[in-house]
Amino acid sequence: MTAYPANARSLSGDAFARLPSTLIPDPPTELAWLAYLVCRFNDLHRRTAALVDRWPR
Question: pTM surpassing 0.70?
Answer without folding.
Answer: no
